[in-house]
Input
Amino acid sequence: MLIRFGVRGNLRFLSHAETVRVFQRACVRAGIKIQYSQGFNPHPKLSLPLPRSVGVESDDDLLCLRVDKSTGAQEHKCAGELCSSIKTRISQQLPDGFELLSVSAAETNISPQPSMATYVLVVREEYPDEKMKARIEHLLASDTLNMQRSISAGKSKIKNVDVRGFLKSIVLKDKCIVVECKISPAGSIRVEEILNLLELGVEKLAAPIRRTSVQWQD
Output
């Protein structure tokens, strides 16, 4: 099953693992049987193909869920009815701040892969000035944008990454900066790296950062 959902408010501070646990518990309370992996330490088969950065809201996130074949088999005759039932049952168990948008049957067992993500940064009224416009023009005109990225939990290991290839566009619209990011098997640019490139501290933002859309490929 592919579950599309949004995250708002204080729940944007949930980590990747915590978000997965929210859905796992919601499924248990809703009476939806999740498939588990085999072995000595079975894990539920649900995943987030594109983890959301802590503190970032999302308009359209995606959860991949493997349900037991017996789930709803006696109650529903078609996949559409089963998906509708699962959507209703999970929605009733999710906390405020989570909005379940849709539930659909996956055509394959392979999780969709993200190829593009769009972020919206709402800045305070005094900051979208000529300096900001010049900064955006400089970033887009650059052939390379090398940044230091920590690659260990303790941030003791650092590597240099050229993030220019991950930036498709940066557009200043009124008080909003809209950033389109490419995603590939090699990775993507991180939200904190976008802020650093734009020289934007959190104190300059007028609203939480929001991931408004994601493009997926099977």
Summary: Confidence is low (pLDDT under 50) at residues 73-77. The radius of gyration is 20 Å.
